[in-house]
């Protein structure tokens, strides 16, 4: 879900996280080769080419998503489909009748096996938490709508911009903006919040009922709603146990608080003073390092577990390669779901390699609001992953942008990019 993943989501994610152990036999090279060949045949049979409809079963609900199976260089690949988004997964291994599909940069996998002709069953597993996290998974081959639609139902319109209020199980609320585009019964869109968006959602309208879902490897979301007039009332299910309710009214002028005014520096503070370990053993990173002297520096508060951080990184990585010669640097401050620095470094290094990140990454701490705020004590607080902090050529903090509106938000993403470039241009011109 970049899924800007806010602290609310981070806490929710921590509650949903799991630990799992995979056992591999210690056998000879020839035995391993034979097992691999046999497993490859089983895996190829289970993951036959075509479009599949997968379903996560949690909280008495079905969270559906579509994925494509193909071959690349003789090896199977899986591509998750979320609205316009395509997430290619190529780390696929087999052992016996079980196939493990690693879910991109996230420390998670789908572990599946054949369940009859053109059917799969298995588990969505997340490995980066303190508690076991497993969600039942099943899939059927053949292109289908995400949600069944009753042919004789009159389909209401959910198209437009909606003023939304989410309410958690603790009774606390937070504002959002719903953005939906509808063609016939098919609906796509997302929700903007003050600390990020819920990325690419897709689904169907059936009568006065709306159902939207997404699965990006880190999060499985289901949104349902009933429409009465120009108002919506519904539920939001997140993976294994997360649940909130939401209400909405049609409002083309709906907007959120200014993302540049949600946090700031403490009184009397102008600079951030930190020295974090680099992802490379023995190294360290500080904004006072000679490499950054006299340059505009962007600090990206992120986590490898955070889909919205991935959205921002997908923008920043190529942007950096095109602009670094202008006198600008980026430092990624990684907050991971582990206290083991070596493990955290490995997760961030994997992200760096898979996403072609050319800028520096540091291990800054654990993925929580409290820990991030403690590690950057000159800030009032950190309330979202990602948070983007702009330093001028003197090393002084000039702007703090909370959250990130990713490409799933359409024009809001274009505004995000334009604002980023404007800020950089202004700081470089000084």
Automatic annotation (TrEMBL):
Q: Where do the TM regions start and end?
A: none
User: Could you tell me which Gene3D superfamilies the record lists for this protein?
Assistant: Glutaredoxin
Q: What is this protein called?
A: TlpA disulfide reductase family protein
Q: What keywords were assigned to this record?
A: Signal
Q: Where is the Thioredoxin domain?
A: 265-429
Database matches in CDD domains: TlpA_like_family (cd02966)
PANTHER family, sorted = PROTEIN DIPZ, THIOL:DISULFIDE INTERCHANGE PROTEIN DSBE
Against Pfam families, the record matches this protein to: Redoxin
Species the sequence originates in = Hymenobacter canadensis
Q: In the UniProt record, does the keyword Signal occur? A: yes
* Residues in the signal sequence: 1-19
> Does GTP-binding appear among the keywords?
no
């Amino acid at each position: 879900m970049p899924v800007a993943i806010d602290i609310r989501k981070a806490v929710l994610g921590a509650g949903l996280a799991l630990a799992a152990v995979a056992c591999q036999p210690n056998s000879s090279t020839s035995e391993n080769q034979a097992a691999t060949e046999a497993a490859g045949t089983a895996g190829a049979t289970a993951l036959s080419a075509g479009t599949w409809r997968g379903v996560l079963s949690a909280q008495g609900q079905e969270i559906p998503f579509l994925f494509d199976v193909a071959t690349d260089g003789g090896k199977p690949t899986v591509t998750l489909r979320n609205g316009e988004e395509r997430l290619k997964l190529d780390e696929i291994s087999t052992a016996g009748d079980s196939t493990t599909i690693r879910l991109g940069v996230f420390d998670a996998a789908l572990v599946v096996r054949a369940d009859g002709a053109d059917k799969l069953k298995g588990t969505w597993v997340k490995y980066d938490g303190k508690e076991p996290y497993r969600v039942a998974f099943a899939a059927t081959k053949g292109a289908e709508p995400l949600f069944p639609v009753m042919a004789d139902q009159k389909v209401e319109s959910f198209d437009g911009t909606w003023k939304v209020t989410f309410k958690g199980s603790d009774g606390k609320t937070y504002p959002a903006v719903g953005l939906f585009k509808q063609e016939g019964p098919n609906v796509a869109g997302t929700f903007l919040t003050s600390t990020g968006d819920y990325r690419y959602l897709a689904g169907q309208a059936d009568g006065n009922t709306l159902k939207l879902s997404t699965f990006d490897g880190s999060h499985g979301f289901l949104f349902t709603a009933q429409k009465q007039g120009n108002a919506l009332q519904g539920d939001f299910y997140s993976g294994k146990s997360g649940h909130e309710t939401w209400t909405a009214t049609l409002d083309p002028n709906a907007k959120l608080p200014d993302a540049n005014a949600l946090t700031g520096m403490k009184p009397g503070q102008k600079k951030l003073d930190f020295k974090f370990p680099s992802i490379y053993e023995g190294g360290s990173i500080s904004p006072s390092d000679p490499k950054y002297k006299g340059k505009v520096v962007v600090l990206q508060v992120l986590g490898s577990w955070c889909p919205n951080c991935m959205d921002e990184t997908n923008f920043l990585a190529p942007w950096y390669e095109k602009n670094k010669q202008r006198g600008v640097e980026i430092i990624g401050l990684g907050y991971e779901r582990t206290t083991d620095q070596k493990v955290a470094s490995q997760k961030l290094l994997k992200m760096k390699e898979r996403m072609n990140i050319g800028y520096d990454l540091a291990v800054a701490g654990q993925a929580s609001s409290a820990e991030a705020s403690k590690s950057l004590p000159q800030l009032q607080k950190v309330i979202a992953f990602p948070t983007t902090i702009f330093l001028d050529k003197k090393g002084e903090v000039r702007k703090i942008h909370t959250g990130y509106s990713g490409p799933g938000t359409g024009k809001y993403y274009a505004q995000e990019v334009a604002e980023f470039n404007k800020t950089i241009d202004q700081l470089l011109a000084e």
